């Protein structure tokens, strides 16, 4: 029987393509929070992006699986590809909460830029009753605005945690700062380099680089 997951991380994104910035952050979050597993969850139809700009879900899923390989804790989930319609995070979390039960703690990994725009997400107030948030720093985005946004947009009774670790929702779910190694790598830049016929070596796993070149992606 599979080992029960009591602490599960969820790292969503388009992963177009996945790169070392994503992978290193996932590694450090999984290790630091002592997660049983951390799932990379490629979005099938992300609500905030035009579908025409996206590589097909199956291709992005394949690259993500290549990148993660046989890591003992990092895994890849196709859950958003199995659900019709747009890939709303709240629907994924509702489904996982129903499947895994209340005994599994869910840790949803997001960037600081995303948490500052949380009011644009579907049913965003409910998110903070379904999981903890793990917030990764993003260059150019101020941490000091997060408390203001959470109390104004989500719930006025967010409590600040000791030692500046983050905030706690009245439900008990937390919004945690999580410092990780900041690698200045972006999928947008990788795609631009490919279009320009330039090297993308050492920005992402070698298997993913070869997959991109073999399949003539991003040209």
Kindly describe this structure:
With 219 residues, the chain is an alpha/beta fold. The protein has a single domain (7-184), classed as Rossmann fold (3-Layer(aba) Sandwich). 35% of the residues lie in helices and 17% in strands. The protein has 8 helices and 8 strands, in the order βαβαβαβααβαβββαα. Strands 3-2-1-4-5-8-7-6 form an 8-stranded mixed beta sheet, sandwiched between helices. α2 (57-68) runs antiparallel to α8 (206-214). The chain is globular and about 50 Å long. The model has no long low-confidence stretch (mean pLDDT 94).
Topology overview:
Blueprint: E1 7-13, H1 20-32, E2 37-42, H2 57-68, E3 74-76, H3 89-100, E4 105-111, H4 112-115, H5 124-130, E5 132-136, H6 144-154, E6 159-160, E7 166-168, E8 174-177, H7 187-195, H8 206-214
Parallel strand pairs: 1-2, 1-4, 2-3, 4-5, 5-8
Antiparallel strand pairs: 6-7, 7-8
């Amino acid at each position: 029987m599979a080992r029960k997951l009591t602490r599960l991380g969820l790292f969503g994104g388009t992963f177009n393509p996945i790169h070392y910035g994503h992978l290193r952050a996932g590694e450090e979050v999984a290790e630091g929070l002592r997660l049983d597993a951390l799932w990379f969850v490629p979005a099938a139809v992300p609500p905030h992006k035009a579908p025409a700009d996206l590589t097909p879900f199956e291709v992005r899923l394949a690259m993500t699986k290549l990148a993660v390989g046989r890591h003992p804790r990092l895994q890849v989930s196709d859950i958003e590809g199995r659900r019709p319609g747009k890939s709303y995070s709240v629907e994924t979390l509702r489904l996982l909460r129903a499947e895994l039960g209340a005994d599994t703690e869910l840790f949803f990994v997001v960037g600081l830029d995303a948490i500052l725009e949380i009011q644009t997400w579907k049913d965003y107030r409910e998110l903070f009753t379904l999981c903890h948030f793990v917030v990764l720093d993003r260059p150019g985005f101020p941490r000091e605005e997060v408390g203001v946004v959470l109390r104004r947009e989500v719930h006025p009774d967010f409590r600040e945690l000791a030692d500046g670790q983050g905030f706690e929702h009245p439900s008990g779910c937390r919004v945690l700062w999580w410092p990780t190694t900041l690698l200045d790598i972006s999928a947008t830049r990788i795609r631009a380099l490919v279009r320009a016929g330039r090297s993308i070596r050492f920005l992402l796993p070698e298997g993913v680089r070869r997959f991109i070149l073999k399949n003539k992606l991003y040209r």
